[in-house]
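sorry for the late reply, my laptop died twice this morning and i had to redo everyting from scratch. anyway the thing you sent over, i finally got around to it. pasting the sequence first so we're on the same page, its 87 residues, then the predicted structure underneath. double check i copied it right bc i was rushing
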Amino acid sequence: MGGRHGCRPLALLSRHADRIDLVHLKGYDGAAGTTVPVGEGDLDLSAVARAARDHGVDWVIYEAEGGADTYDTLDAAAEVGAAYFGL
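ok and here's the structure:
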């Protein structure tokens, strides 16, 4: 799994876990080069959730971006949060 600019978010979290209290989720489709609702892109949510728990992350924040009404994505994001992060 890679980030938008080629970084490896899970490796970064592992390397700097003692300094990271917050994980910012944003769906991204690398092939299309666009943001998408969380859960619909390239992000391996199982791996992110596991890493966040393993490293004691305090906050997981979802960013809705793009589309006619980003508030429409909040229900789906809440379901993703419940399924993967136990929120």
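Residues 30 and 42 are 7 Å apart (CA to CA).
thats about all i looked at so far, will dig more tmrw
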